[in-house]
Amino acid sequence: MQALNSAGGRRDGTPTLTQNGKPLFGAFFGQSSFAQHVLTSSSNVVVVDDDVADLATAAPLGCGFQTGAGAVLNVLAPGTDSSLVIFGAGAVGLAAIMAARACGVRTVVAIDPVESRRQQAIKLGATVALQPGTAAVGAIREITDGGTSHALDTTGIPAVIAEALTALDSCGTLVVVGLGKTMAEINITDLMLNGKTLRGCTEGDGVPQNFIPTLFDAHAEGRFPMEQLVTKYSFHAINDAVADMRAGKTIKPVLVWEEKN
């Protein structure tokens, strides 16, 4: 599992790359995101239609976009009369907002500290966008008439996860897709007495060969405008891409190489 999916190894445990006789690891979950070529198994390949001209814009479907959209469509599955609060309006969170809008969720609340991302959340379909903090839970309860029926945490921050659980209505569900550096303490009494559900989700719990084409179809119909989240950078500007992402200026940076004649 680890060798094939995290370290870029082969089934027999040998590395795919070496330097001076020593193995090189770190293939970014087998995607080799910073390379022009990649060795991969057929199970990692998703066939797309010939009319998909801009593969650079579609690149984030392999991870962030399908994670956010899948968490909503495949796991939470909110109805039109539901409410959904999304903690973190980065690529994953905004993809979740687009998915929520596409399936007609009545109330969608976005939580993010960056103003430009809150504005983008509203543009993509959020009902309201709030700053994080202690006041956010009270605002969520007021907006959703007592508590949200569904919530999604994309941050992995223990304090945020605790707030998300507190913001849930009775029998509400929180899905977490972010990995944090520290352990989160969970109020089991709150979960038990109020019938709340906390569950994890990996890559949107979707089968990529089936789910990614579904997102392509939604994009073609204008229901999943993923191009609004992507900013392309020349590979030589990789440091600028990282800096802009950390500053919140860019939602999903994608590196492209200039074609040689």
TrEMBL record:
<dbReference type="GO" id="GO:0051903">
    <property type="term" value="F:S-(hydroxymethyl)glutathione dehydrogenase [NAD(P)+] activity"/>
</dbReference>
<keyword id="KW-0520">NAD</keyword>
<dbReference type="Pfam" id="PF00107">
    <property type="entry name" value="ADH_zinc_N"/>
</dbReference>
<dbReference type="InterPro" id="IPR036291">
    <property type="entry name" value="NAD(P)-bd_dom_sf"/>
</dbReference>
<dbReference type="GO" id="GO:0005829">
    <property type="term" value="C:cytosol"/>
</dbReference>
<protein>
    <submittedName>
        <fullName>Aryl-alcohol dehydrogenase AdhB</fullName>
    </submittedName>
</protein>
<dbReference type="InterPro" id="IPR013149">
    <property type="entry name" value="ADH-like_C"/>
</dbReference>
<keyword id="KW-0479">Metal-binding</keyword>
<keyword id="KW-0862">Zinc</keyword>
<dbReference type="GO" id="GO:0046294">
    <property type="term" value="P:formaldehyde catabolic process"/>
</dbReference>
<dbReference type="GO" id="GO:0008270">
    <property type="term" value="F:zinc ion binding"/>
</dbReference>
<dbReference type="InterPro" id="IPR011032">
    <property type="entry name" value="GroES-like_sf"/>
</dbReference>
<feature type="domain" description="Alcohol dehydrogenase-like C-terminal">
    <location>
        <begin position="91"/>
        <end position="211"/>
    </location>
</feature>
<comment type="similarity">
    <text>Belongs to the zinc-containing alcohol dehydrogenase family.</text>
</comment>
